[in-house]
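User: Hi! I'm working on a homework problem where we have to compare a predicted structure to a textbook description. Could you give me the structure for the chain below?
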Amino acid sequence: MTWHQSHHAVDGVMVHPFNGEAWKHFNSVHPHFLAESRNVRLGLCTDGFNPFRTAAPYSCWPVILTV
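Assistant: Happy to help. Predicted structure tokens:
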């Protein structure tokens, strides 16, 4: 749980999502969350598509939540 706190990344190489701009922005906006190294960040991803082409009004939206 504390790996992201002690790991030092190489500049220009993205090796883990904590190196991403989104996490850096989140850390700058919420420094109290960053202060506790055991806090867990969750990633939420959705992607909608129409399985029956454009003729039907149905769509699927898979939702993926990752730690």
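For your comparison, note the following. The CA atoms of residues 1 and 38 lie 5 Å apart. Helices lie at 3-6, 21-29, 31-35. Good luck with the assignment!
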